[in-house]
Design goal:
By secondary structure, the chain is of the alpha/beta class. It has two helices and three strands. The N and C termini lie far apart (32 Å).
Amino acid sequence: MKIGIILTTTRDGRVSDQVGTWLLEQSKAYSKSQFEIVDLKDFSLPIFGEADSNNGIAKWKEKLAELDGYIFVLAEY
């Protein structure tokens, strides 16, 4: 089973990448599943309905389709 650890913040100074890395380390205890970090920064997604000129949405959909489950790392302000 492939599980994506989704980092949902893209701002500078975020902490989600540190939390995601910690989760990835903790996931090693679950040998029946493969975990990977999926960072929104790696997908050029449009904001608020802007036109997608570089296929960021298509790449995002492909990545999600590869995974069997998701863990979302959300920001809290």
